[in-house]
Specification:
Blueprint (H helix, E strand, L loop, with lengths): L22 H18 L23 H13 L1 H16 L2 H6 L28 E3 L2 E3 L12 H27 L2 H17 L24 H18 L5 H20 L7 H17 L2 H9 L4 H7 L12 H20 L9 H7 L3
Antiparallel strand pairs: 1-2
Length: 359
C-alpha cells in the first residue's frame, strides 16, 4: 500500500494516522508534486491550474487559485456572471426557501433518518408522489400520504438539500466575501453535530442495522453522496468555525460517518465509487492517513475502480449510461481531491475515456 502524506493545516483536528515516509522522502515528493501540478491537473472546463502550496485552504472542492479564477470568470464571462448571480440569489434565500419548499414552520433538520427514494410511490395507483409544502400527494387523486416510508423519503430530500446548501453557501462566502453566508453554512454543520450520532443505522426497509444501512440516509451509497457536499461545505468555512465546533463536527459527524460507510465494501461498483469519494474527503478533512489510503489504494479503492470498472473503450462496466455518469461524478471528485492533496493518480486518465465513450 502506498503512503500519501497529508499536509497538516493550522487548527486541524488530527486523528490516528498510518506511518508515512521519512522527512526527506516526503519533502522530495511534495516538491515533485508542486512542479508537476500545473501539468497533471486537467479540469473539465477549467483554465490551466495554478500550482499552490498543498496546505492551502480550502482544498477539497476548490482551492484558493480556483476561487480567484472563478472570480475572474464572473467579471469576464456572461455565463459565469449568471451562475454567480444564481448562487448568490439562492444563498440570500436560504433558509426561507427551504422552509417554504417543505412546508416547515422554521428551519430544522429532520430528527429521523431518511427513507429510500424508490418508496415514494402511491400504494394505490403505483405512480410517484409529489412533495408540495409538506404534503405527499398522489397526482391521480390528490390523496396525501404520511408516515413511513413517505415522510422519510422527504427527509432524504431535505438532508440532501441541506448538504448541498452548506457547499453552495461556502462557495458564496468565498466568491462574495459576505460572512453571513459562512454563518448560514455553519448553522447547517453545527446542527448535524449533535444529531448524527443519535440516528440508528437503518436500511431501506427501516430495519435497524444491516451491512448496507446508514444513519442520515438508509444505505451507505446515499450516505456517501449526502456527506460529500457537506464536507465540501465544511472545508469552505472551517476556518470561520471555532476549534470546539470543528472538533465536535469532525468527531461526531465525519469520523462516525466514515465508520458507517467503510463497513460495507461494495467491490466493483458505482456504490463503492461514491464510498471512496466520501472516505477520501473525510480522510483529508480530519487528517486520517488510513482513510486516505483506503479510498485510493484499498482493495476496492479508486485505483481498483479505474482498472476494473471502466471498460477499455471507456464505458462503465454496468452497461448503462445512467450508471456510467452516476459513477463518473464521484470518480472525478476523487481524482480532483487526490491531485489537490498531492497524490499521483495516473490511472485517472481513464476518466477521459469515460467522457469520449458516449460520443
Amino acid at each position: 500500500m502506498r503512503a500519501h502524506p497529508i499536509p497538516r493545516r493550522r487548527g486541524s483536528v488530527a486523528g490516528p494516522r498510518a506511518s508515512a515516509p521519512g522527512a526527506a522522502q516526503t519533502a522530495n515528493a511534495a516538491a515533485a508534486v508542486r512542479r508537476a501540478l500545473a501539468g497533471i491537473l486537467w479540469r473539465l472546463g477549467a483554465a490551466t491550474a495554478v500550482a499552490l502550496s498543498l496546505d492551502a485552504a480550502p482544498r477539497l472542492l476548490v482551492n484558493p487559485g480556483d476561487i480567484e479564477r472563478m472570480k475572474a470568470a464572473v467579471r469576464a464571462e456572461p455565463w459565469a456572471a449568471k451562475a454567480f448571480a444564481e448562487l448568490i440569489r439562492d444563498a440570500d434565500a436560504w433558509p426561507d426557501s427551504h422552509v417554504r419548499e417543505y412546508g416547515l414552520k422554521e428551519w430544522a433538520l429532520p430528527k429521523e433518518g431518511a427513507g429510500w427514494s424508490h418508496a415514494y410511490v402511491c400504494p394505490e395507483h403505483g405512480v410517484r408522489l409529489k412533495q408540495s409544502a409538506g404534503r405527499n400527494l398522489c397526482p391521480v387523486d390528490n390523496k396525501d400520504y404520511h408516515g413511513w416510508p413517505f415522510d422519510h423519503v422527504v427527509y432524504m430530500q431535505r438532508h440532501g438539500d441541506n448538504a448541498r446548501a452548506a457547499r453552495d453557501l461556502g462557495l458564496a462566502f468565498h466568491l462574495a466575501g459576505n460572512p453571513a453566508y459562512a454563518a448560514k453554512a455553519r448553522r447547517i454543520l453545527n446542527a448535524y453535530t449533535p444529531l448524527y450520532p443519535t440516528l440508528p443505522v437503518h436500511d431501506n426497509q427501516n430495519r435497524i442495522g444491516g451491512a448496507r444501512g446508514a444513519r442520515v440516509m438508509s444505505q451507505t451509497l446515499s450516505e456517501s453522496s449526502w456527506i460529500t457536499p457537506l464536507i465540501f461545505g465544511y472545508d469552505l468555512v472551517r476556518d470561520t468555525m471555532s476549534e470546539t465546533e470543528r472538533e465536535a463536527f469532525e468527531t461526531n459527524v465525519l469520523r462516525n460517518a466514515a465508520q458507517v460507510i467503510r463497513s460495507y465494501d461494495a467491490g466493483r461498483s458505482n456504490w463503492q465509487s461514491w464510498h471512496n469519494a466520501a472516505l477520501l474527503a473525510i480522510g483529508l478533512a480530519v487528517q486520517d492517513q488510513a482513510l486516505v489510503e483506503l479510498a485510493i489504494d484499498g482493495p476496492s479503492g479508486f485505483r481498483f475502480q479505474m482498472r476494473s470498472s471502466i471498460l477499455p473503450d471507456g464505458p462503465w462496466y454496468e452497461g448503462s449510461w445512467g450508471y456510467h455518469f452516476f459513477a463518473f461524478e464521484p470518480l472525478m471528485l476523487t481524482r480532483e481531491m487526490a491531485v489537490r492533496a498531492g497524490i499521483d493518480v495516473p490511472e485517472s486518465a481513464a476518466l477521459k475515456k469515460m467522457l469520449d465513450a458516449p460520443l
